[in-house]
Amino acid sequence: MEKKPDLKTSSPEKLSGFEWWRRSLAYRTGLGCDDKEKLQFEHDYQAKYFPENCTQCESFRDWALTYSPSVIFMMGHIRKLGGNLSLANISCGKCDDLKGGGFHPDMGILLCSNWLQSQTQVEDVLTHELVHAYDYLKFKLDMKDLNHHACTEIRASMLSGECRIMREIWKTGLANFGGKFQQCIKRRAVLSVSANENCPSPDKAAEVVDKVWNSCFNDTRPFERVFR
């Protein structure tokens, strides 16, 4: 009689964020995943707690891919550049970090279901990550290069709608009305670059964002203009 593999439930830390994303993608595609690993994934899948809002995130994602003008626009331009993003590699999952999502060239886009609570949030975050995907294909983006990282974060926050004027007014009030859009973009870009393992400090992140600001803020490709 064939002995069944010894399967042990992985610790919660190993089943969340990037590692869970990597394993689930390998399981679905069959790439880099042997039979024992598939069985282990199925076992862990049953043991892992998924918040109910994962299903909600997937519903919001599906709506955005079908009806959102910004998402449809970016998906079209990514296809023109040879990208292959689809439902197969735009997934929802639990994230440990306080962030909305992530892009990986080999794995696609992850939407953090435990942080995204509305259709608008999912639409903005998905557009943000699609800008990263576009930049990777169009400009040979290298996230280890802090200049590259800062530039794509500036563009992603600017083009995604995350920093709409009315949203910033709701958050911070009417003071400095004209500068809120740029302040929001810079704030988000500095936070993202600060998290880069190659960035020594938040001060360095702010310095790099300032260095590339003019050229990257004024680059709205593939959009013709930005609506604030």
TrEMBL record:
Record-listed E.C. numbers: 3.4.24.-
One GO CC term, this protein: mitochondrial inner membrane
Pfam family, one: Peptidase_M76
GO BP, sorted A to Z: mitochondrial protein processing; mitochondrial proton-transporting ATP synthase complex assembly
Recorded GO MF terms: metal ion binding; metalloendopeptidase activity
Location of this chain's protein in the cell: Mitochondrion inner membrane
Keywords: Hydrolase, Membrane, Metal-binding, Metalloprotease, Mitochondrion, Mitochondrion inner membrane, Protease
Similarity comment: family membership: Belongs to the peptidase M76 family.
Protein's name according to its UniProt entry: Mitochondrial inner membrane protease ATP23
Organism, scientific name: Australozyma saopauloensis
Organism classification: Eukaryota, Fungi, Dikarya, Ascomycota, Saccharomycotina
